[in-house]
Fold this protein.
Amino acid sequence: MLVNFRDQKNPNFFYRQDYADISKILLLVKAKALFSLYLDPEGEKRVFGHFDQCDYTIEINNNDVRESLTVIIECDENTVNDLKLEFF
């Protein structure tokens, strides 16, 4: 399932990835666990915070059904919001 990550204060996704099993992510959200994401070796593109909540979405377009999960992070520090998903 596609999992999108976004800052609580910004509707744009800063990261997305496909996961075969999202149960661990749901447990992290439930526990409001710490979140650290480094998108480059130098650590300049990073996000720190806590898992806050998630939204489950089902999109139906003709016969095509697509599920996704949006995980919202309460960010303490976010240096990637302006990347506009350039790394995808």
Observations:
- The first strand starts at residue 2 and ends at 7.
- The radius of gyration is 13 Å.
- The chain has a mean pLDDT of 90.
